[in-house]
């Protein structure tokens, strides 16, 4: 079986040709050893960093961006997404807040920005301007 990959380990972006013969992985096109290691890992156990959003209660916005602190197996991504879809966190939330802990080995899901609490007080002048200037 042959597969073509683009190495993402360094800025060179080598075009890799990976061939699997009798369970042995042969890699061509890599300019460094990192490319070979990347290709082998991508074939044996592909992993990705997951980025998505989680719902926020009483926040300035309805959702907050989150990501895994490291790569997780690609096959595990949809299971983590299902777990995150059931979660709603309460504002205020700091950046780096652990939404889920140790979802895979030592990998957590954390917030990537802070979330302020929604302002509930309104300026009376805003209401006057709207009343006097109907659209």
From TrEMBL:
It holds the Pfam family DUF1667. Residues 114-128 have a biased composition (Basic and acidic residues). This is Conserved protein. The lineage of its organism: Bacteria, Pseudomonadati, Dictyoglomota, Dictyoglomia, Dictyoglomales. Residues 114-135 are annotated as: Disordered.
């Amino acid at each position: 079986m042959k597969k073509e990959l683009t190495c993402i380990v360094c800025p060179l972006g080598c075009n890799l040709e990976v061939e699997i013969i009798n369970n042995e992985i042969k890699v061509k096109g890599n300019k460094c050893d990192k490319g070979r290691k990347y290709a082998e890992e991508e074939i044996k156990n592909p992993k990705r960093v997951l980025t998505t959003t989680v719902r926020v209660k009483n926040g300035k916005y309805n959702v907050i961006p989150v990501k895994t602190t490291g790569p997780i197996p690609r096959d595990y991504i949809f299971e983590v997404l299902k777990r995150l879809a059931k979660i709603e966190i309460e504002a205020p939330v700091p950046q780096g807040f652990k939404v889920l802990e140790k979802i895979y080995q030592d990998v957590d899901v954390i917030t990537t920005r802070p979330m302020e609490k929604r302002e509930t007080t309104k300026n009376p002048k805003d209401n006057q301007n709207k009343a006097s200037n109907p659209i």
